[in-house]
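Q: How would the structure tokens look for this protein?
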Amino acid sequence: MKTLIYFVALDHIPEIPGDTDSAEFSATRSWNRYQDMVHHFEENSLDPYKIIPVFHQFERLKYLDRMLEAEIPYIGLSPTNEDAFENDKRPFLRKCFKQVAPNGKPLCKTHAFGLSSYELLGWKKNTTVVEFPFYSADSTSWAEQAKHMSIIVPKWGTTFTPGTDEGLEKIFQTKWDFSEIYSVTSVA
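A: Here is the predicted structure in token form.
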């Protein structure tokens, strides 16, 4: 079994959303930290392509372009998490994917930070076209469920048809009774 380990570069999140100076400082500091990590990895014979730099909403696109020009194989995209709605994140993601996937095919893998919207992650109703072809995503919204003593888990043996709502309500369930959830150990 092959183990895939990636490291997210220590990024600097813009302190004032929408503020140009804050975004400029953030982007420069994040890039410098990424470069420091690359240097450290190379000095220690580690693969620098396992480092994921992060591009934040409100940063200028030239910083995303720099990552693409450096042929970084895996880039993180971080829309604002200031209680923003999908419609606040969508324009940012459209700008990013115009650069990342100029012909519809991504030039690199992308990870969505702080994003859990089914629609923004590609499960859009009545279409098979994925607007934002992320490779991976994460979010802390699952923790909100856990705070209220429930978790959302996939149902075994169910399928989902991308581009439709068919099966969507069937593949996830809210669990209140944890007696059915068992500890799983990995067998190498």
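The helical segments are 20-43, 61-69, 86-100, 141-147, 168-171.

Residues 173-188 have pLDDT under 50 and may be disordered.

Upvote if useful.
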